[in-house]
Amino acid sequence: MNKIDFDYVALTQALVKCPSVTPYDEGALQVVEDHLKDLGFECTRLPFSEDGFNDIDNLFAIIGETGKHLAFAGHTDVVPPGNERSWKYPPFSGTIADEKIYGRGTEDMKGNIACFMSATNSFISKYGKDFGGKLSFIITGDEEKDAINGTVKMMEWTKEKNIKFDHCIVGEPTSNKIIGDKIKIGRRGSISFFITVKGVQGHTANSHLAENPTHHLVSLLQRIISNPLDEGNEKFLPSSIQVPSIDVGNPAVNVIPEIAKATINIRFNNIHTSASLKQWLEDHIALQFNDVINASCSFRTDQTGDCFLTEPGDLSVIVSSACREITGKNMDPEFATDGGTSDARFIKNYCEVLELGLKNRTLHQVNENINISDLKELHDIYPVSYTHLTLPTNREV
């Protein structure tokens, strides 16, 4: 594909053909950089490293010197395709069939990036490079896995460079039945607890000489999941407690194990904090093991995101208006906070942020795909949004 082809379909295909499974880039960032440089953006590669994690390359691109600053944030990394023989078409082919584009990352979120790039081309073609505001792209290759060497460090870098933002749109797939019917203004937090119960190994026939950690672990888990954390509120769904795994690793039916482990993942709303949930677990453990002599329980924590909410402001009003205008639907988008974590959690401390993108239907699935007609609607919504977010108030739109 010619690198200056800004057609959103061709751009989506070009990105999908890069098998950029985290932490590998495989040319995806170069596709974005080549196109943005052609539009006059100043592009900076930002490779980051940290002990114990994969090295990640990222891209920051900006155009404009003064005025309001709108950023678009996204990620070019994707999850693995799984069993490729289960795919109707090769997962990194970008095949077009039945008015859809198939491939890993079409929905999450290369199609969204393609739409914003194509829309930016249309915007600059109409208003010129000196349009009186600033546009930037914050593109990471580290969203689907550790999220250590990606957006969080890019935002720290912009702060060091005294780059300030007024608004940011994150291109996650948020729409439900039609493009633009749902906008994410926050997310529940995510925290995982890795629990280890240590007992006394022994023969199953001599249980009085042993202490079975599995029994204590099962009782603890039952205590934890028997009562909901909360019922949710006006802005958030109820917090969710899930037990993804219980592991004993014992191949012998006549041996009481010494160790039993389990993982708990909690998606929590703004009623809780990571600190309060750690205390909640410690309280449950204290109750469970208060009278137990020969068994103990410990846990470690992995938190991938805090709960956050961006109260609707100028950005939400303008993007909502753009959605109504382009879709022709006389209704406001739903402001939602459901779903998993996103990189908006790193951007919320710098400016007003929301998430708007394609329909959330097939991301991470076999045969991930997007409708070409949906791409067009999203492509049309984006520039309507940022004409009002970046152009000076005295300039005709």
Describe the fold and architecture.
The chain has 397 residues and is of the alpha+beta class. The chain is built from nine helices and 19 strands. A six-stranded mixed sheet has the order 1-2-6-3-7-18. A four-stranded antiparallel sheet has the order 12-14-10-15, with helices on one face. Helix 1 packs across helix 3 and helix 5 crosses helix 6.
Looking at this protein, list some descriptive labels.
single chain; 397 residues; alpha+beta; six-stranded mixed beta sheet; 9 helices
* Low-confidence region ranges: none
| Large-scale geometry | elongated
**Strands side by side in the biggest sheet:** 1-2-6-3-7-18
Strand proportion, as a percent range, falls in 15-25%
Average pLDDT over all residues: 93
Number of strands: 19
What distance separates the N and C termini?
32 Å
Radius of gyration: 24 Å
N-to-C SSE series? HHEEEEEHEHEEEEEHEEEHEEHEHEEH
Total of DSSP H or I helical runs spanning 4+ residues: 9
- Helicity level, as a percent range? 25-40%
Secondary structure category:
alpha+beta
Brief digest:
With 397 residues, the chain is an alpha+beta fold.
Question: What topology emerges from the helices and strands here?
Answer:
Layout (H helix, E strand, L loop, with lengths): L7 H9 L11 H11 L3 E4 L13 E5 L5 E7 L20 E2 L2 E3 L3 H22 L6 E7 L10 H10 L6 E4 L11 E3 L1 E2 L1 E10 L3 E2 L9 H13 L14 E8 L7 E2 L2 E10 L5 H16 L6 E10 L2 E2 L4 H14 L6 E3 L7 H4 L4 E4 L13 E3 H19 L7
Parallel strand pairs: 3-6, 3-7, 7-18, 8-17
Antiparallel strand pairs: 1-2, 2-6, 4-5, 5-19, 9-16, 10-14, 10-15, 11-13, 12-14
